[in-house]
Amino acid sequence: MKRNSSSETWDFKTLKVTRPREYVVNVELNRPEKRNAMNSDLWSEIRACFLQLATDADCRAVVLSGAGKMFTAGLDLTDAILQETTMSDADVGRKAFSLRRNIALFQESFTVIEKCPKPVIAAVHSACLGAGIDMISACDIRYCSSDAWFTIKEVDLGLAADVGTLQRFPKVIGNDSLARELALTARNFFADEAKEMGFVSRIFPDKEQLIEGALDLASTIASKSPIAVQGTKISMVYARDHSVADSLEHVLTWNQAMLQSEDVKNAIMANMQKQKPVFSKL
């Protein structure tokens, strides 16, 4: 991954990464001619990108969007590596081990979004199909345009979703019955229903206003203490998968160190003086 210091971008085959605002990074799926379908390069580059952003002191919030006419068509069924793995005549045992390795890498491509301590805001326009649901379920916040529509597509392709939807989506929407209905039927659901079920939190009239709204939110988050913001995300992800007692113990251990940060003092002093606090890079 090469950094372009003059335009603040990285050179990827399938992603366009820019810094549209202070401390805000926009990661854009950039295969518009293929409807941003996810090939092996994209899976690999998503992992590399978010691993880098996780430790980038100039990044405090991320907007994840898609170039072209739709957010993503999901899995690229024409990808050579995918076809080679699934259509191979290799020994069943060896083929199974190969599939397991590839699926684990695909899973990690979206888990790195969840593990990245910087909040990630998905900005979805038009279609978000199949693996796109897996991807945005790993994000922290989801916005969409009024023309957005979604499908958990995998059962129509003869497989169970295996890179995050079945594990994250039900917890995001908090409705097990509806999650099963959508996963078992592959029916489309649209922006209004997505908001009603809690999958997205805001709907915008069009893509332009969607991106602007997502960037505004990212800027607001980026203006806060990076220690407080990242600690909040890490604690909320932990709490989702653990008991209340375990999660309280986790944040207790976390804050016994983080409450000693200069950010607490700076925030309190700024509030007392009715000024906007400024926080140093983390």
Automatic annotation (TrEMBL):
Pathway: Lipid metabolism; fatty acid beta-oxidation. InterPro entries: ClpP/crotonase-like_dom_sf, Ech1-like, Enoyl-CoA_hydra/iso, Enoyl-CoA_hydra_C. Keywords: Acetylation, Fatty acid metabolism, Isomerase, Lipid metabolism, Peroxisome. One of its GO terms (molecular function) is delta(3,5)-delta(2,4)-dienoyl-CoA isomerase activity. GO terms for cellular component: mitochondrion; peroxisome. One of its GO terms (biological process) is fatty acid beta-oxidation. It is found in: Peroxisome. It catalyses: (3E,5Z)-octadienoyl-CoA = (2E,4E)-octadienoyl-CoA; (3E,5Z,8Z,11Z,14Z)-eicosapentaenoyl-CoA = (2E,4E,8Z,11Z,14Z)-eicosapentaenoyl-CoA. Isomerization of 3-trans,5-cis-dienoyl-CoA to 2-trans,4-trans-dienoyl-CoA. Belongs to the enoyl-CoA hydratase/isomerase family. NCBIfam families: PRK06142.1 (NF004794). This is Delta(3,5)-Delta(2,4)-dienoyl-CoA isomerase, mitochondrial.
